[in-house]
Amino acid sequence: MILKALYDYYHRCGDLAPQGWEYKEISFIIVLDADGNLIDVEDYRSEDNKHGTPYLVVKGVRSGTAPKPYLFWDNVEYTCNYVAPSPKNSPERQAELLRKAALKHNALVDKFKAVSSKYPENTALKAVCLFYENGGLENLYAHHMWQEIIKKPTVNISYRLDKATDTVPEIVAEEPCLENEIADSSGNEDSEKQSICLISGKPCEPVESTSPTPIPGSQATARLVSFQINSGYDSYGKQKGLNAPISKEAEASYTTALNRLLGKGSQNKYIIGNRTFVFWGSSNSEATVMLENALAKELNGFDDDIEETDEDDPNVRVETVTKVFESIYYGNVPGALTDRFYILGLAPNSARIAVTHWSDTSLRDFASNMLKHHEDMEIADRRTDKKTYTGLYNILRAITVNGKVSDIKSNLPEAIVKSIVEGRPYPYSLMQQVILRIHADHKIDIVRAAIIKAYLNRIDRNKQKQLTVMLNKEEKNIGYLCGRLFAVLEYTQRKALGTSTFADKYLGAAMSSPAKVFPTLIKLTEHHLSKINSPGFKIYIEKIRQEILAKISSPVFPTQLDINRQGGFVIGHHHQMGDLYTHKDEENKVENDNN
Fold first, then answer.
1. Tens digit of each residue's pLDDT (9 = 90 or more) over 226-237
2. Rounded to two decimals, what is the model's pTM?
3. CA dist 204 to 192, 207, 249, Å?
4. How many whole angstroms separate alpha carbon 350 and alpha carbon 352?
5. Of 129, 223, 352, 427, which has the highest C-beta tally within 10 A?
6. Which helix H or strand E contains 277, and what residues bound it?
7. Three-class SS of residue 91?
8. Exposed (0-12), middle (13-18) or buried (19+): which is 52, by Cβ within 10 Å?
9. Is-contact 343 272, C-beta < 8 A?
Protein backbone atom coordinates (compact mmCIF):
# COMPACT_ATOMS: atom_id res chain seq x y z
CA MET A 1 0.00 0.00 0.00
CA ILE A 2 2.81 2.43 0.87
CA LEU A 3 4.76 1.68 -2.29
CA LYS A 4 1.65 1.96 -4.47
CA ALA A 5 0.81 5.36 -2.96
CA LEU A 6 4.38 6.56 -3.62
CA TYR A 7 4.24 5.11 -7.13
CA ASP A 8 1.04 7.05 -7.81
CA TYR A 9 2.60 10.22 -6.37
CA TYR A 10 5.46 9.94 -8.89
CA HIS A 11 3.02 9.87 -11.77
CA ARG A 12 0.91 12.59 -10.17
CA CYS A 13 3.84 15.04 -10.00
CA GLY A 14 4.90 14.79 -13.62
CA ASP A 15 8.13 16.74 -13.07
CA LEU A 16 10.25 14.15 -11.27
CA ALA A 17 13.39 12.57 -12.64
CA PRO A 18 12.73 10.08 -15.46
CA GLN A 19 13.41 6.39 -14.93
CA GLY A 20 17.08 5.68 -14.46
CA TRP A 21 17.94 9.28 -13.54
CA GLU A 22 17.93 11.17 -10.26
CA TYR A 23 18.65 14.61 -8.92
CA LYS A 24 21.82 14.57 -6.79
CA GLU A 25 23.60 17.39 -5.05
CA ILE A 26 27.00 18.09 -6.59
CA SER A 27 29.24 20.16 -4.33
CA PHE A 28 32.40 20.50 -6.45
CA ILE A 29 33.03 20.40 -10.19
CA ILE A 30 36.42 19.64 -11.72
CA VAL A 31 36.89 21.82 -14.81
CA LEU A 32 38.98 20.22 -17.58
CA ASP A 33 40.12 21.06 -21.07
CA ALA A 34 39.69 18.65 -23.96
CA ASP A 35 43.04 17.01 -23.19
CA GLY A 36 42.06 16.27 -19.58
CA ASN A 37 44.21 19.02 -18.04
CA LEU A 38 42.92 20.53 -14.79
CA ILE A 39 41.74 24.09 -15.38
CA ASP A 40 39.96 24.82 -12.10
CA VAL A 41 37.81 23.42 -9.29
CA GLU A 42 34.48 25.15 -8.78
CA ASP A 43 32.51 25.27 -5.55
CA TYR A 44 28.80 24.63 -6.10
CA ARG A 45 27.78 24.51 -2.44
CA SER A 46 25.09 26.64 -0.87
CA GLU A 47 25.99 29.68 1.21
CA ASP A 48 25.95 27.65 4.43
CA ASN A 49 28.09 24.93 2.78
CA LYS A 50 25.54 22.29 3.79
CA HIS A 51 24.16 21.46 0.36
CA GLY A 52 25.38 21.15 -3.20
CA THR A 53 23.62 22.10 -6.41
CA PRO A 54 21.15 19.48 -7.70
CA TYR A 55 21.90 17.97 -11.11
CA LEU A 56 20.09 15.29 -13.11
CA VAL A 57 22.48 12.32 -13.23
CA VAL A 58 22.24 8.62 -13.94
CA LYS A 59 20.95 6.91 -10.82
CA GLY A 60 23.53 4.84 -9.01
CA VAL A 61 22.75 1.78 -6.90
CA ARG A 62 25.17 0.22 -4.44
CA SER A 63 24.77 -3.08 -2.64
CA GLY A 64 27.08 -5.80 -1.42
CA THR A 65 30.81 -5.36 -0.85
CA ALA A 66 32.09 -4.96 -4.41
CA PRO A 67 32.84 -1.37 -5.50
CA LYS A 68 30.07 0.09 -7.65
CA PRO A 69 31.05 3.53 -8.99
CA TYR A 70 28.51 5.90 -10.46
CA LEU A 71 28.59 7.34 -13.98
CA PHE A 72 30.86 10.40 -14.05
CA TRP A 73 29.91 11.56 -10.58
CA ASP A 74 30.60 10.15 -7.13
CA ASN A 75 31.89 10.96 -3.67
CA VAL A 76 35.43 12.02 -2.78
CA GLU A 77 36.58 8.50 -1.93
CA TYR A 78 35.69 7.15 -5.36
CA THR A 79 36.62 10.17 -7.49
CA CYS A 80 39.76 11.28 -5.65
CA ASN A 81 41.09 8.09 -4.02
CA TYR A 82 40.94 9.76 -0.60
CA VAL A 83 40.14 8.60 2.92
CA ALA A 84 40.18 11.08 5.78
CA PRO A 85 42.75 10.16 8.47
CA SER A 86 41.37 9.60 11.95
CA PRO A 87 43.24 9.41 15.28
CA LYS A 88 40.76 6.71 16.30
CA ASN A 89 42.03 4.37 13.59
CA SER A 90 45.00 2.12 14.19
CA PRO A 91 47.72 2.14 11.48
CA GLU A 92 46.42 -1.24 10.31
CA ARG A 93 42.85 0.02 10.12
CA GLN A 94 43.87 3.15 8.24
CA ALA A 95 45.90 1.08 5.79
CA GLU A 96 42.88 -1.15 5.16
CA LEU A 97 40.67 1.86 4.48
CA LEU A 98 43.23 3.23 2.02
CA ARG A 99 43.36 -0.14 0.27
CA LYS A 100 39.58 -0.22 -0.10
CA ALA A 101 39.53 3.38 -1.34
CA ALA A 102 42.08 2.47 -4.00
CA LEU A 103 39.89 -0.43 -5.14
CA LYS A 104 36.88 1.87 -5.37
CA HIS A 105 38.84 4.51 -7.27
CA ASN A 106 40.33 2.00 -9.70
CA ALA A 107 36.85 0.58 -10.31
CA LEU A 108 35.63 4.11 -11.09
CA VAL A 109 38.45 4.79 -13.55
CA ASP A 110 37.94 1.42 -15.27
CA LYS A 111 34.21 2.07 -15.58
CA PHE A 112 34.80 5.54 -17.02
CA LYS A 113 37.18 4.10 -19.63
CA ALA A 114 34.79 1.31 -20.55
CA VAL A 115 31.89 3.73 -21.06
CA SER A 116 34.03 6.29 -22.90
CA SER A 117 35.26 3.62 -25.32
CA LYS A 118 31.67 3.13 -26.49
CA TYR A 119 31.44 6.78 -27.52
CA PRO A 120 34.83 7.67 -29.06
CA GLU A 121 33.50 10.95 -30.48
CA ASN A 122 32.43 12.27 -27.07
CA THR A 123 35.11 14.76 -26.04
CA ALA A 124 33.76 15.23 -22.51
CA LEU A 125 33.94 11.56 -21.52
CA LYS A 126 37.38 11.24 -23.08
CA ALA A 127 38.65 14.32 -21.19
CA VAL A 128 37.71 12.78 -17.84
CA CYS A 129 39.56 9.57 -18.69
CA LEU A 130 42.63 11.56 -19.81
CA PHE A 131 42.51 13.47 -16.52
CA TYR A 132 43.09 10.27 -14.59
CA GLU A 133 45.53 8.77 -17.14
CA ASN A 134 47.75 11.85 -17.01
CA GLY A 135 47.99 12.00 -13.21
CA GLY A 136 45.46 14.76 -12.82
CA LEU A 137 44.82 13.82 -9.18
CA GLU A 138 48.23 15.20 -8.17
CA ASN A 139 47.26 18.58 -9.60
CA LEU A 140 43.91 18.34 -7.84
CA TYR A 141 45.62 17.67 -4.49
CA ALA A 142 47.71 20.81 -5.01
CA HIS A 143 44.72 22.99 -5.89
CA HIS A 144 43.64 25.51 -3.26
CA MET A 145 40.10 24.07 -3.26
CA TRP A 146 41.31 20.65 -2.18
CA GLN A 147 41.27 21.63 1.49
CA GLU A 148 37.61 22.58 1.13
CA ILE A 149 36.80 19.28 -0.56
CA ILE A 150 38.31 17.10 2.15
CA LYS A 151 36.43 18.87 4.93
CA LYS A 152 33.51 16.62 4.08
CA PRO A 153 34.61 13.64 1.93
CA THR A 154 31.03 12.40 1.56
CA VAL A 155 30.11 15.21 -0.85
CA ASN A 156 29.70 14.49 -4.55
CA ILE A 157 32.04 15.57 -7.33
CA SER A 158 31.53 15.73 -11.08
CA TYR A 159 33.34 17.20 -14.11
CA ARG A 160 32.76 19.64 -16.93
CA LEU A 161 34.63 20.88 -19.99
CA ASP A 162 35.98 24.39 -19.93
CA LYS A 163 34.07 26.93 -22.04
CA ALA A 164 30.96 24.74 -22.23
CA THR A 165 28.30 26.18 -24.52
CA ASP A 166 24.52 26.07 -24.21
CA THR A 167 24.48 22.99 -26.44
CA VAL A 168 26.84 21.10 -24.13
CA PRO A 169 25.63 19.76 -20.76
CA GLU A 170 27.00 21.72 -17.83
CA ILE A 171 28.52 18.63 -16.23
CA VAL A 172 29.76 15.45 -17.85
CA ALA A 173 27.33 13.32 -15.82
CA GLU A 174 24.50 14.90 -17.83
CA GLU A 175 25.79 13.74 -21.23
CA PRO A 176 22.82 12.40 -23.26
CA CYS A 177 24.72 9.29 -24.36
CA LEU A 178 24.80 8.10 -20.74
CA GLU A 179 21.12 7.30 -21.03
CA ASN A 180 22.19 4.20 -22.94
CA GLU A 181 24.03 3.04 -19.82
CA ILE A 182 21.03 3.13 -17.52
CA ALA A 183 20.13 -0.52 -18.04
CA ASP A 184 23.69 -1.54 -17.26
CA SER A 185 23.73 0.49 -14.03
CA SER A 186 20.66 -1.14 -12.53
CA GLY A 187 22.66 -3.92 -10.96
CA ASN A 188 20.34 -6.54 -12.38
CA GLU A 189 22.05 -7.93 -15.45
CA ASP A 190 21.51 -11.51 -14.28
CA SER A 191 17.85 -11.18 -13.40
CA GLU A 192 15.76 -14.34 -13.44
CA LYS A 193 12.67 -14.92 -15.57
CA GLN A 194 9.90 -12.40 -15.59
CA SER A 195 7.47 -11.99 -12.70
CA ILE A 196 4.42 -9.88 -11.93
CA CYS A 197 5.24 -6.51 -10.36
CA LEU A 198 3.63 -6.23 -6.93
CA ILE A 199 3.11 -2.49 -7.40
CA SER A 200 1.87 -2.09 -10.96
CA GLY A 201 0.52 -5.62 -11.51
CA LYS A 202 2.31 -5.79 -14.88
CA PRO A 203 4.77 -8.44 -16.16
CA CYS A 204 8.28 -7.33 -15.35
CA GLU A 205 11.92 -8.18 -14.95
CA PRO A 206 12.25 -7.52 -11.20
CA VAL A 207 15.09 -5.63 -9.57
CA GLU A 208 17.28 -7.44 -7.06
CA SER A 209 17.99 -4.35 -4.96
CA THR A 210 16.37 -0.96 -4.64
CA SER A 211 17.79 2.55 -4.68
CA PRO A 212 18.74 4.37 -1.47
CA THR A 213 16.18 6.67 0.10
CA PRO A 214 18.14 7.98 3.11
CA ILE A 215 16.58 10.02 5.90
CA PRO A 216 18.27 12.18 8.58
CA GLY A 217 20.23 9.91 10.93
CA SER A 218 20.41 6.97 8.54
CA GLN A 219 23.24 5.70 6.39
CA ALA A 220 23.55 7.19 2.92
CA THR A 221 22.68 3.77 1.46
CA ALA A 222 19.59 3.22 3.62
CA ARG A 223 16.56 1.84 1.79
CA LEU A 224 12.86 1.69 2.46
CA VAL A 225 12.75 -1.84 0.99
CA SER A 226 15.68 -4.27 1.27
CA PHE A 227 16.34 -7.95 1.80
CA GLN A 228 19.09 -9.88 3.54
CA ILE A 229 20.53 -13.09 2.21
CA ASN A 230 20.17 -16.28 4.26
CA SER A 231 18.22 -14.50 6.99
CA GLY A 232 14.83 -16.13 6.63
CA TYR A 233 13.64 -13.94 3.77
CA ASP A 234 14.57 -16.31 0.95
CA SER A 235 12.03 -18.68 -0.56
CA TYR A 236 12.07 -21.23 -3.39
CA GLY A 237 15.70 -20.40 -4.07
CA LYS A 238 15.02 -16.72 -4.71
CA GLN A 239 17.15 -14.08 -3.10
CA LYS A 240 16.96 -10.34 -2.43
CA GLY A 241 14.21 -8.49 -4.28
CA LEU A 242 13.29 -11.52 -6.34
CA ASN A 243 11.25 -12.68 -3.34
CA ALA A 244 8.92 -9.71 -3.78
CA PRO A 245 9.17 -8.72 -7.44
CA ILE A 246 9.14 -5.04 -8.29
CA SER A 247 9.71 -3.81 -11.81
CA LYS A 248 12.49 -1.39 -12.66
CA GLU A 249 9.91 1.20 -13.65
CA ALA A 250 7.97 0.86 -10.37
CA GLU A 251 11.15 0.85 -8.27
CA ALA A 252 12.42 3.97 -10.00
CA SER A 253 9.03 5.65 -9.54
CA TYR A 254 8.51 5.04 -5.84
CA THR A 255 12.14 5.72 -4.83
CA THR A 256 12.21 8.94 -6.86
CA ALA A 257 8.91 10.01 -5.31
CA LEU A 258 10.10 9.33 -1.77
CA ASN A 259 13.37 11.15 -2.36
CA ARG A 260 11.39 14.15 -3.62
CA LEU A 261 9.27 14.15 -0.46
CA LEU A 262 12.43 13.87 1.67
CA GLY A 263 14.43 16.36 -0.36
CA LYS A 264 15.78 19.76 0.51
CA GLY A 265 13.04 22.38 0.62
CA SER A 266 10.20 19.86 0.57
CA GLN A 267 7.13 21.25 2.33
CA ASN A 268 5.74 17.72 2.50
CA LYS A 269 8.29 16.76 5.15
CA TYR A 270 8.41 17.22 8.91
CA ILE A 271 11.32 16.16 11.13
CA ILE A 272 11.09 15.84 14.90
CA GLY A 273 13.93 14.19 16.84
CA ASN A 274 14.98 11.11 14.89
CA ARG A 275 11.58 10.75 13.25
CA THR A 276 10.81 11.93 9.73
CA PHE A 277 7.23 12.31 8.52
CA VAL A 278 6.23 12.81 4.89
CA PHE A 279 2.70 13.42 3.67
CA TRP A 280 0.98 13.69 0.31
CA GLY A 281 -2.36 13.35 -1.42
CA SER A 282 -3.59 11.01 -4.12
CA SER A 283 -4.11 13.63 -6.84
CA ASN A 284 -3.37 17.18 -7.93
CA SER A 285 -6.86 18.36 -7.05
CA GLU A 286 -7.41 21.76 -5.50
CA ALA A 287 -8.41 20.16 -2.21
CA THR A 288 -5.25 18.04 -2.04
CA VAL A 289 -2.92 20.96 -2.74
CA MET A 290 -4.72 23.12 -0.20
CA LEU A 291 -4.52 20.39 2.44
CA GLU A 292 -0.81 19.74 1.86
CA ASN A 293 -0.05 23.45 2.26
CA ALA A 294 -2.23 23.75 5.35
CA LEU A 295 -0.70 20.72 7.06
CA ALA A 296 2.82 21.99 6.36
CA LYS A 297 1.98 25.17 8.25
CA GLU A 298 0.17 23.28 11.01
CA LEU A 299 3.06 20.89 11.74
CA ASN A 300 5.70 23.59 11.62
CA GLY A 301 3.79 25.89 13.92
CA PHE A 302 3.66 28.56 11.18
CA ASP A 303 7.36 29.26 11.73
CA ASP A 304 8.02 29.05 7.98
CA ASP A 305 5.82 32.05 7.24
CA ILE A 306 7.06 35.53 6.61
CA GLU A 307 8.52 37.52 9.47
CA GLU A 308 5.81 38.79 11.75
CA THR A 309 4.91 42.47 11.79
CA ASP A 310 2.33 44.42 13.74
CA GLU A 311 -0.19 43.65 11.00
CA ASP A 312 0.84 39.98 10.69
CA ASP A 313 -1.19 38.27 13.40
CA PRO A 314 -0.35 34.54 13.65
CA ASN A 315 -3.94 33.90 14.66
CA VAL A 316 -5.01 35.10 11.22
CA ARG A 317 -2.86 32.36 9.71
CA VAL A 318 -4.36 29.81 12.07
CA GLU A 319 -7.84 30.90 11.05
CA THR A 320 -6.84 30.59 7.39
CA VAL A 321 -5.65 27.02 7.90
CA THR A 322 -8.79 26.18 9.87
CA LYS A 323 -10.93 27.50 7.03
CA VAL A 324 -9.05 25.18 4.65
CA PHE A 325 -9.92 22.19 6.82
CA GLU A 326 -13.54 23.36 7.04
CA SER A 327 -13.90 23.86 3.29
CA ILE A 328 -12.53 20.36 2.65
CA TYR A 329 -14.71 18.81 5.36
CA TYR A 330 -17.84 20.37 3.86
CA GLY A 331 -16.79 19.39 0.32
CA ASN A 332 -16.59 22.95 -0.97
CA VAL A 333 -13.48 22.39 -3.15
CA PRO A 334 -12.86 19.90 -5.98
CA GLY A 335 -11.41 16.61 -4.80
CA ALA A 336 -12.48 16.98 -1.18
CA LEU A 337 -14.88 14.05 -1.28
CA THR A 338 -12.89 11.67 -3.49
CA ASP A 339 -9.16 11.99 -2.78
CA ARG A 340 -7.03 10.16 -0.21
CA PHE A 341 -4.37 11.55 2.09
CA TYR A 342 -1.27 9.69 3.32
CA ILE A 343 1.22 10.19 6.16
CA LEU A 344 4.36 8.06 6.41
CA GLY A 345 6.57 8.07 9.52
CA LEU A 346 10.16 6.87 9.15
CA ALA A 347 13.09 6.24 11.51
CA PRO A 348 16.71 5.20 10.94
CA ASN A 349 17.37 1.53 11.64
CA SER A 350 20.92 0.33 10.99
CA ALA A 351 21.34 0.05 7.20
CA ARG A 352 17.58 0.22 6.64
CA ILE A 353 14.69 2.57 7.22
CA ALA A 354 11.95 1.57 9.64
CA VAL A 355 8.31 2.49 9.02
CA THR A 356 6.95 3.81 12.32
CA HIS A 357 3.65 5.25 11.13
CA TRP A 358 1.31 4.89 8.16
CA SER A 359 -2.11 6.41 7.76
CA ASP A 360 -4.39 6.31 4.73
CA THR A 361 -7.58 8.36 5.10
CA SER A 362 -9.96 10.31 2.92
CA LEU A 363 -9.33 14.05 2.69
CA ARG A 364 -12.66 14.71 4.38
CA ASP A 365 -11.92 12.43 7.33
CA PHE A 366 -8.45 13.89 7.68
CA ALA A 367 -9.80 17.45 7.68
CA SER A 368 -12.43 16.41 10.22
CA ASN A 369 -9.79 15.02 12.57
CA MET A 370 -7.66 18.15 12.25
CA LEU A 371 -10.68 20.27 13.16
CA LYS A 372 -11.31 18.02 16.18
CA HIS A 373 -7.71 18.50 17.25
CA HIS A 374 -8.11 22.28 17.07
CA GLU A 375 -11.39 22.09 18.98
CA ASP A 376 -9.96 19.84 21.70
CA MET A 377 -6.86 22.03 22.11
CA GLU A 378 -8.79 25.30 22.23
CA ILE A 379 -8.57 26.95 25.64
CA ALA A 380 -8.81 30.44 27.13
CA ASP A 381 -5.81 32.54 26.12
CA ARG A 382 -4.79 35.60 28.12
CA ARG A 383 -1.38 35.98 26.46
CA THR A 384 -0.57 39.20 24.68
CA ASP A 385 1.49 37.68 21.85
CA LYS A 386 -1.22 35.14 20.88
CA LYS A 387 1.31 32.78 19.29
CA THR A 388 0.03 29.49 17.92
CA TYR A 389 0.28 26.46 20.15
CA THR A 390 -1.52 23.53 18.47
CA GLY A 391 1.38 22.29 16.32
CA LEU A 392 3.23 19.05 17.01
CA TYR A 393 6.47 20.87 17.80
CA ASN A 394 4.72 23.08 20.36
CA ILE A 395 3.20 20.02 22.03
CA LEU A 396 6.51 18.17 22.27
CA ARG A 397 8.41 21.23 23.43
CA ALA A 398 5.93 21.62 26.31
CA ILE A 399 6.92 18.24 27.80
CA THR A 400 10.72 18.48 27.58
CA VAL A 401 13.35 20.15 29.71
CA ASN A 402 13.97 23.67 28.38
CA GLY A 403 11.95 22.76 25.29
CA LYS A 404 14.69 20.43 23.98
CA VAL A 405 12.66 18.30 21.59
CA SER A 406 15.64 16.09 20.71
CA ASP A 407 15.30 14.52 24.18
CA ILE A 408 11.78 13.27 23.52
CA LYS A 409 11.07 9.56 23.68
CA SER A 410 11.40 8.18 20.16
CA ASN A 411 7.94 6.59 19.94
CA LEU A 412 5.94 9.52 21.29
CA PRO A 413 5.88 11.77 18.18
CA GLU A 414 4.22 9.14 15.98
CA ALA A 415 1.78 8.27 18.79
CA ILE A 416 0.70 11.92 18.91
CA VAL A 417 0.52 12.15 15.12
CA LYS A 418 -1.65 9.04 15.07
CA SER A 419 -3.97 10.57 17.67
CA ILE A 420 -4.32 13.78 15.69
CA VAL A 421 -4.74 12.45 12.15
CA GLU A 422 -6.93 9.48 13.11
CA GLY A 423 -9.00 11.23 15.78
CA ARG A 424 -7.97 8.78 18.50
CA PRO A 425 -7.40 9.49 22.22
CA TYR A 426 -4.07 11.13 22.89
CA PRO A 427 -1.44 8.77 24.36
CA TYR A 428 -1.38 8.36 28.12
CA SER A 429 2.38 8.93 28.06
CA LEU A 430 1.73 12.46 26.76
CA MET A 431 -0.53 13.25 29.70
CA GLN A 432 1.96 11.66 32.07
CA GLN A 433 4.85 13.73 30.71
CA VAL A 434 2.88 16.98 30.99
CA ILE A 435 2.07 16.34 34.66
CA LEU A 436 5.67 15.35 35.39
CA ARG A 437 7.02 18.53 33.79
CA ILE A 438 4.60 20.70 35.77
CA HIS A 439 5.72 19.01 38.99
CA ALA A 440 9.36 19.54 37.97
CA ASP A 441 9.37 23.18 36.85
CA HIS A 442 6.19 24.43 38.63
CA LYS A 443 4.88 26.03 35.46
CA ILE A 444 1.41 25.92 33.94
CA ASP A 445 1.20 27.50 30.48
CA ILE A 446 -1.38 27.49 27.72
CA VAL A 447 0.17 24.59 25.78
CA ARG A 448 0.24 22.28 28.78
CA ALA A 449 -3.26 23.25 29.81
CA ALA A 450 -4.50 22.70 26.23
CA ILE A 451 -2.85 19.26 26.04
CA ILE A 452 -4.50 18.18 29.29
CA LYS A 453 -7.90 19.51 28.24
CA ALA A 454 -7.63 17.67 24.91
CA TYR A 455 -6.50 14.44 26.58
CA LEU A 456 -9.26 14.44 29.21
CA ASN A 457 -11.99 15.28 26.73
CA ARG A 458 -10.91 12.49 24.37
CA ILE A 459 -10.62 9.64 26.87
CA ASP A 460 -14.39 9.61 27.06
CA ARG A 461 -15.80 11.35 24.02
CA ASN A 462 -19.31 10.20 24.94
CA LYS A 463 -19.42 12.22 28.16
CA GLN A 464 -22.26 14.71 28.08
CA LYS A 465 -20.17 17.24 29.96
CA GLN A 466 -16.73 18.12 28.59
CA LEU A 467 -14.09 20.49 29.89
CA THR A 468 -14.85 23.92 28.49
CA VAL A 469 -12.71 26.55 26.83
CA MET A 470 -13.41 29.22 29.45
CA LEU A 471 -13.90 29.12 33.21
CA ASN A 472 -16.81 26.88 34.20
CA LYS A 473 -18.19 27.85 37.60
CA GLU A 474 -20.57 24.89 37.51
CA GLU A 475 -17.77 22.30 37.31
CA LYS A 476 -17.68 20.14 40.48
CA ASN A 477 -14.63 17.99 39.72
CA ILE A 478 -12.53 18.11 42.89
CA GLY A 479 -9.28 18.52 40.98
CA TYR A 480 -10.69 21.41 38.96
CA LEU A 481 -11.94 23.10 42.16
CA CYS A 482 -8.58 22.71 43.88
CA GLY A 483 -6.86 24.25 40.86
CA ARG A 484 -9.24 27.18 40.90
CA LEU A 485 -8.68 27.73 44.62
CA PHE A 486 -4.88 27.55 44.24
CA ALA A 487 -5.07 30.22 41.52
CA VAL A 488 -7.12 32.52 43.78
CA LEU A 489 -4.66 32.12 46.67
CA GLU A 490 -1.67 32.62 44.36
CA TYR A 491 -3.26 35.72 42.85
CA THR A 492 -3.92 37.14 46.31
CA GLN A 493 -0.28 36.75 47.33
CA ARG A 494 0.85 38.50 44.15
CA LYS A 495 -1.59 41.35 44.83
CA ALA A 496 -0.30 41.72 48.39
CA LEU A 497 3.43 41.35 47.81
CA GLY A 498 3.86 42.19 44.14
CA THR A 499 5.07 38.65 43.50
CA SER A 500 4.14 35.09 44.39
CA THR A 501 6.08 32.03 45.54
CA PHE A 502 3.07 29.73 45.80
CA ALA A 503 3.76 27.90 42.56
CA ASP A 504 7.46 27.30 43.25
CA LYS A 505 6.86 26.06 46.78
CA TYR A 506 3.48 24.37 46.76
CA LEU A 507 2.19 23.65 43.24
CA GLY A 508 3.35 20.03 43.00
CA ALA A 509 2.08 19.15 46.48
CA ALA A 510 -1.23 20.95 45.94
CA MET A 511 -1.79 18.99 42.71
CA SER A 512 -1.07 15.56 44.17
CA SER A 513 -1.87 15.91 47.91
CA PRO A 514 -4.25 18.84 48.53
CA ALA A 515 -4.96 17.97 52.15
CA LYS A 516 -1.30 18.48 53.06
CA VAL A 517 -0.94 22.05 51.86
CA PHE A 518 -4.27 23.83 51.40
CA PRO A 519 -4.93 24.47 55.12
CA THR A 520 -1.52 26.14 55.30
CA LEU A 521 -2.11 28.12 52.10
CA ILE A 522 -5.47 29.40 53.34
CA LYS A 523 -3.86 30.63 56.56
CA LEU A 524 -1.13 32.37 54.56
CA THR A 525 -3.76 34.03 52.41
CA GLU A 526 -5.44 35.50 55.49
CA HIS A 527 -2.09 37.11 56.29
CA HIS A 528 -1.74 38.38 52.72
CA LEU A 529 -5.23 39.87 52.73
CA SER A 530 -4.36 41.84 55.87
CA LYS A 531 -1.65 43.64 53.88
CA ILE A 532 -4.07 44.77 51.17
CA ASN A 533 -5.70 48.17 51.69
CA SER A 534 -8.46 47.66 49.12
CA PRO A 535 -11.72 46.55 50.79
CA GLY A 536 -13.22 46.01 47.35
CA PHE A 537 -10.52 43.54 46.40
CA LYS A 538 -10.95 41.66 49.66
CA ILE A 539 -14.69 41.32 49.04
CA TYR A 540 -14.08 40.24 45.44
CA ILE A 541 -11.54 37.55 46.40
CA GLU A 542 -13.56 36.29 49.35
CA LYS A 543 -16.63 35.94 47.16
CA ILE A 544 -14.75 33.74 44.68
CA ARG A 545 -13.05 31.73 47.43
CA GLN A 546 -16.29 30.96 49.23
CA GLU A 547 -17.98 30.02 45.94
CA ILE A 548 -15.24 27.43 45.32
CA LEU A 549 -15.14 26.07 48.87
CA ALA A 550 -18.92 25.65 48.87
CA LYS A 551 -18.59 23.17 46.01
CA ILE A 552 -16.06 21.00 47.83
CA SER A 553 -18.40 18.40 49.31
CA SER A 554 -16.16 17.47 52.25
CA PRO A 555 -14.76 19.95 54.76
CA VAL A 556 -11.47 18.10 54.42
CA PHE A 557 -9.47 18.37 51.20
CA PRO A 558 -8.71 15.04 49.44
CA THR A 559 -5.50 13.36 50.51
CA GLN A 560 -4.58 12.30 46.98
CA LEU A 561 -5.52 13.23 43.41
CA ASP A 562 -4.98 10.73 40.61
CA ILE A 563 -3.40 11.84 37.34
CA ASN A 564 -6.70 12.75 35.69
CA ARG A 565 -7.78 14.88 38.63
CA GLN A 566 -4.34 16.48 38.64
CA GLY A 567 -5.08 17.31 35.02
CA GLY A 568 -8.35 18.86 36.17
CA PHE A 569 -6.33 20.87 38.70
CA VAL A 570 -4.22 22.32 35.90
CA ILE A 571 -7.28 23.26 33.85
CA GLY A 572 -9.00 24.82 36.85
CA HIS A 573 -5.87 26.83 37.68
CA HIS A 574 -5.46 28.01 34.08
CA HIS A 575 -9.13 28.96 33.76
CA GLN A 576 -9.33 30.77 37.10
CA MET A 577 -6.05 32.64 36.69
CA GLY A 578 -7.09 33.79 33.23
CA ASP A 579 -10.45 34.92 34.57
CA LEU A 580 -8.85 36.86 37.43
CA TYR A 581 -6.54 38.78 35.13
CA THR A 582 -9.23 39.33 32.52
CA HIS A 583 -11.86 40.71 34.91
CA LYS A 584 -9.91 43.21 36.94
CA ASP A 585 -12.69 45.67 36.17
CA GLU A 586 -14.93 43.63 38.46
CA GLU A 587 -12.53 44.32 41.33
CA ASN A 588 -12.77 48.03 40.59
CA LYS A 589 -16.57 47.81 40.45
CA VAL A 590 -16.70 46.18 43.88
CA GLU A 591 -14.32 48.85 45.18
CA ASN A 592 -16.50 51.66 43.86
CA ASP A 593 -19.70 50.08 45.20
CA ASN A 594 -18.08 49.73 48.61
CA ASN A 595 -17.16 53.39 48.64
1. 776 666 656 666
2. 0.79
3. 10, 9, 9
4. 5
5. 223
6. strand 275-281
7. helix
8. buried
9. no
